[in-house]
Specification:
Strand content: under 5%
Helix content: 40-55%
Number of strands: 0
Structural class: mainly alpha
Radius of gyration: 19 Å
Distance between the termini: 24 Å
Largest sheet: none
Oligomer: single chain
Length: 60
């Protein structure tokens, strides 16, 4: 599987958001979902273990 990434600058993101808002777009800040946050933290820990291992536990 090949993935392709394109770097964007902070200014490009700011300009895109400005255009989005100028066209009537809205941004909503949703309250945190503790369940999703815990799932994300677990996924990050699993990724770290799989990618980097944990030398103290011999998981490399």
């Amino acid at each position: 599987m090949t993935s392709s990434f394109q770097a964007v600058t902070h200014d490009e993101i700011q300009q895109a958001l400005g255009r989005f808002l100028a066209k009537g777009g809205e941004i909503q800040v949703l309250p945190p979902n503790p369940g999703q946050e815990l799932l994300l933290k677990r996924e990050l820990r699993e990724t770290e273990v799989l990618e980097y291992g944990i030398p103290e536990l011999g998981l490399i």
